[in-house]
Amino acid sequence: MHYSTKNQRNLNNSIPFVKQAGISSLLFILLVGLSLTVLTVGYMSSMRNLQSSATTAHAQTQAQMKAMMGYHALSKFLLNQPQGYLDKITAGDISEGTTITSSYVKSISCPASTIPGEVHYCFDITGKSGGASAIIRAMYAYQKEVQQSTVAGTIFAGGLVVGGNANFVGETGENVTIFVGGENAGKVVDTSGEEVTLERITVQAYTNPIEVADAGTLKNYANYLFTKNNAGSIECYRNNLHITGGAVITTPIQITCPTGVSIDNKGVWSFNSSTINLPGIMWFEGSVLIQLQKTPNDMVNTVLATGSVTTDLGTGNIAGTYNAYAPLHYLLMASDSNIKTRLDKVCPAENYPVQYCQPYDATQRSLITSVTYFKNNKDKFLKNTNLFPANLSNILFLTDTEFAIDAANDTTLNLYGNLVGTKGAGGTGKASGKITGTGDINIKGNLVVTGDLKTEVQGNMTVTLGKSNTDGNNIPVLIYSTKSKSIRYM
For residue range 256-279, what is the model confidence (pLDDT) as tens digits? Predict the structure, then answer.
């Protein structure tokens, strides 16, 4: 009995535990369900975030691509634009067909260039896609560079007038081509405006303009420089020379002004090549009077002047022959008997110009037996005179304003090399080139007058124009270009 009662009591006590076990199951199921729900919601939220991130990344990538495409398009557009346009441009859109793909704005916070003659321009190029945007900061360098160009003939960009009893002809056996611009393009006229037919000269219209490098631009490539300081005193320098001991001068060094160069009270330089007896390129700040001497005291130099260039045969007993040679033409006109002597004058053993002379080699020079040998081995003695700055050896005179060539009675003036006027003298009715006198003038080379004003040939004389030797046709010209310098994402 006792046993039965106890069992009954234990049975009654076990009932609550059974009920609690059911509740635990329900709670477990509920927690599992909630966890699955949370996991599902979290997964769905994560998927949405991943999708949003993917969409954003795709849009950003597309924006960057459009910005880069805009950069390439803008670079191509700016390549050949003149500096005046680059100064004025401020902002714009870049389109593919009718669809705008990007835009650009000129930045005012663009660092200045430290390179002479170079100007920086910065643009912010923006590409957009799906609400995303990307900006590229592009910096461009606008440069004025001196390069080489072959001149196919003589150029009178502002026109050519032949007046009086002047006779302007081509050298016997040659058909010389000249290009004439101005209001009478393609024609040579007299002082009354009537067309003149020239013997052995073909006249064509000047339709392919070139811009010859001016004396100011070429200053750093000269061998001797003659300038005036702020006090008005003259100063002389040398540069670009291989000097005694093997050193090479690459920056101007002031020297005592040599005999053969002086300046008058009007600020006009006088230059006597045979007296100064220095090889290379002479650069003058201002106008210069070229004092020529009778042969054999010939001039052998290149003269560059920011002012005018005028030839002078002196006074008194001046009848005779006068020769003036550009350095390269002095060698091209050599004979078997004087080629070594002439090479030693153009490229001496000491203080030779490094622009167009190869390093001096006495052994190699001893092998020169003829002009033919020299021309066949020219690269052993001269640098490539078709490339700048070696092509400066082709120039006899170069002026930024005007030139005047005069031959007096009973004189013969022979000019070998290119005569260049880069800008024109300016002033109503003023010529940028004058060839006058009563003697004979022979020009073996190209007359290149690129200024807007005319060239006049007047007097009781004959001007004979010969085609420049093929090796001597090359002159320095100015080339303008815009190049990409750097890019970065902002």
Answer: 999 999 999 899 999 999 999 999
Distance CA 180, CA 325 (A): 25
The answer to whether 174 and 469 are in contact (CB under 8 A) is: no
DSSP string of 184-216, one letter each residue:
GTT--B-TTS-B---TTEEEEE--S---BPPHH
Beta partners for 483?
Answer: 141
Q: What does the alpha-carbon distance between residue 200 and residue 146 come to, in Å, rounded to a whole number? A: 33
Choose among 162, 202, 147: nearest CA to 179.
202
Q: Which among 407, 474, 410, 468 has a CA at the least distance from the CA of 441?
A: 407
Q: What is the pLDDT of residues 438-476, one digit of tens each?
A: 888 898 888 888 877 788 888 777 788 877 767 778 888
Find out whether 415 and 324 touch, Cβ atoms under 8 Å: yes
Higher pLDDT, 247 or 470: 247
Question: Shortest CA distance to 207 belongs to which of 179, 173, 230, 249?
Answer: 179
Q: What is the dihedral of CA 217, 221, 226, 229, to 10 degrees?
A: 60
> Side chain identity at 401, as an amino acid letter?
T
Query: Side chain identity at 108, as an amino acid letter?
Result: I
3-state secondary structure of 178: strand
Task: Output the pLDDT for position 44.
Answer: 62
Alpha carbons 63 and 67: distance in angstroms, whole number: 6
CA 401 – CA 425 distance, rounded (Å): 4
Q: Which two tokens stand for residue 3?
A: 């046993």
CB 119 within 8 A of CB 485: no
Give the whole-angstrom CA distance, residue 75 versus residue 82: 14
Indicate the helix (H) or strand (E) that contains 203. Answer: strand 201-205
Query: Which H or E element spans position 479?
Result: strand 474-489
Mean pLDDT check: name the lowest of 55-59, 237-241, 350-354. 55-59
How far, in Å, are 153, 166, 186, 420 from residue 202 at the CA level?
10, 18, 10, 20
d(CA 260, CA 208): 40
